[in-house]
Amino acid sequence: MIGLAIGVAVILYLVFVYNGLVKARQMAEEAWSGIDVQLKRRADLIPNLIETVKGYAAHEKSTLEEVVALRNRAQAVPEGDIAGRAAAEGALSQALGRLFALAEAYPDLKANENFAELQSSLETIEGELQMSRRYYNGAARDLNVKVESFPSNLIANTFRFAKASYFEITNEADRAVPSVRF
């Protein structure tokens, strides 16, 4: 009888740990989906932003082409390649920063209502992306702890649960503290 009770307890524990791993994996996948939604929103705004800027800064063609090329590169990253997507999106963020800096040289563009609205929308999306990235990295951390911790790692290895990649900045320039000059 005692042996049966111990056997049932072990089986219940294994089910509990397995379900915890499944939940952690689903949380990480759901969190990645949140990042993906925000990245899609940003990608959808970029063509409108480019068209607005084109009319004011026609001779800044290389900057505009770079933003479009980086947007397309970010969209082409295979699904599941989190590190590749993070690198592509980081490069796109830098190019968008240069595009907004370009707007400083064109006061008419800066005052343009469409441009101001698009810039505001992109800033909102960037804030939401930041929150989504933090949420994803937290979910990835929780999954990784369960995959690596004893005794859940025994079950994770048995059922091929894999660690999740973090959404990280790969470009050192993005990590640098910006200099402010007056």
From TrEMBL:
SUPFAM superfamilies, per the entry: LemA-like
Transmembrane helix found in the keyword field: yes
Highest taxon above the source species: Bacteria
Pfam families: LemA (PF04011)
Compartments, as annotated in UniProt: Membrane
Main location: membrane
High-level lineage: Bacteria, Pseudomonadati, Pseudomonadota, Alphaproteobacteria, Hyphomicrobiales
Gene Ontology CC terms, in alphabetical order: membrane
Membrane topology: Single-pass membrane protein
This protein's name: LemA family protein
Family: Belongs to the LemA family.
Membrane found in the keyword field: yes
PANTHER family according to UniProt: MEMBRANE PROTEIN, PROTEIN LEMA
Keywords: Membrane, Transmembrane, Transmembrane helix
